[in-house]
Amino acid sequence: MLEKVEEFNMDKVIQEFELLTRDAERVQRETLKRILEDNASAEYLQSLGLNGRTDPESFKACVPMVTHKELEPYIYRIIDGDASPILTGKPITTMSLSSGTTQGKPKYVPWNDELYETTMQIYQTSFAFRNREFPIKNGKALSFIYGSKQLKTKGGLAARTATSNVFCSAGYKCAMRALQSQCCSPDEVIFGPDFFQSLYCHLLCGLIFREEVEFVSSTFAHSIVHAFRTFEQVWEELCNDIREGVLTRNVTVPSIRMAMSKLLKPNPELANAIHKKCTGLSNWYGLIPELFPNAKYIYGIMTGSMEPYLKKMRHYAGELPLLTADYGSSEGWIAANVNPQLPPEYATYAVLPHIGYFEFIPLLELENTKPLGLTQVKVGQEYEIVMTNPAGLYRYRLGDVVKVMGFHNSTPELKFIRRSSLLLNINIDKNTEKDLQLAVEAAGKLLAEEKLEVVDFSSQVDLSKEPGHYVIFWEISGEASQELLHECCNCLDKSFVDAGYTSSRKVNCIGALELRLVRRGTFQKILDHYLGLGTAVSQYKTPRCVGPTNTRVLQILSENVVNNYLSTAFN
């Protein structure tokens, strides 16, 4: 029996958001009170001497700011099966696994029903604002989403990525139907054990329902670009499956074959139409609107570490708008995109004051690192976010740096700047992920003149000999001349404009930047490595700076280097 789909009321959701953000300070106090009352019996809170107090002043005086490392002893007790109230009042039965691409190994983060509720609140809020600007009717979404492998911890808890925890929640499908965002692929494809077979069938389902697809989405932009790069390789095979009504033998998972057999019927007319569309395109420009004529937009997280994929995404999207999704992490959601008409590069996220309690550490005032409340932040300033959520994280330093761009009523609108920990640093230099991205973009323009592109990139600090130097790993789309790659290497070196870097390079306290070219498919091998660790593709982020502890990724990169170039920019 179908679950009853509750009617989605766009105007009501927007009104509620406007009401909540008018007095964000009061809502924040109420949210903190609710979280602390619900979890008053937690051993962690009791040990800190709150004694039932729920006001922000007592909370900040008693509860220290922490990182994941400080909470690990408590989290590992939960993982090992201790069901007593450790971090939360009610037992935690599920864990989320972070993507693990920053530190090299996934982190366990507590997950509960309250976090699912905050996810739905974010989804509903952003959908309401999105649908007001770009209305969709009752079509389907081509969603490149993938359930991760579910692990069982020693104590019997389920552990999977945060996105998989959302997809597995009982109300998820019903909620997506209400938001007119139903995925056109069956569950067997989403939760299939083989990523490539699932991706192939997502593409096939999209083509079968091509007239009904109203938007294309994934959690991250990377997955969408990856999907259509794959389409370029397999489109003729997809056409053949549609023509014959029989799934390719390359899909071997029985449950996926069974599910697809119910959708796939011989349709030579559709196969010919798709074939004609594909052969009529120039270098695949505008592929998505050609395949899906009723698509209104492309949707997914496109900011932060996803920005390097925007150029390729726009190539596939043609005239279709790119709408960036909301701002959150494995630890919980923070803010919604309520200005969907802004291009991803200018996107801001309005904090929902009722889904967690938020504090902000000012980055400029190094002496006074006392965090500020949600409504005390200043426009134009950068902060590190501290989060208290309903699933046992109290004053948790998220490691994200954001900039306040403005206010929506009394709640701040944030722009994601960078991960606070992700720095290329040898001497007095400090280069962030954004600096690396800008350098790669600048050098990538030289490649573009030869109709080549950077497929993906990463970096490391090489301290194996004095002086240490930056290493940039590039995978590119074709053959480039030695002269061009040497020019790109010099351009990368000159594009790091941080004063600490340029002054150190001039006096040789930092050695010449090295560009290492890796063979095609290297970044796919890195993705495969993370899939093996249990990461879901839809949650995957290419590691932009590989630390010395991330030995396997460094090994994959090193084994696949085909050429290297040293900068002469400062000679």
TrEMBL record:
GO cellular component: cytoplasm
GO molecular function: acid-amino acid ligase activity
Source taxon at top rank: Eukaryota
Classification via Pfam families: GH3 (PF03321), GH3_C (PF23572), GH3_M (PF23571)
Sequence ranges assigned to domain GH3 middle in this UniProt record: 349-419
Protein name (Swiss-Prot/TrEMBL): Jasmonic acid-amido synthetase JAR1 isoform A
Assigned keywords, A-Z: Ligase
Sequence similarity: Belongs to the IAA-amido conjugating enzyme family.
The keyword Ligase is assigned to this record: yes
Domain (GH3 C-terminal): residue spans on this chain: 434-546
InterPro entries: GH3 (IPR004993), GH3_C (IPR055378), GH3_M (IPR055377)
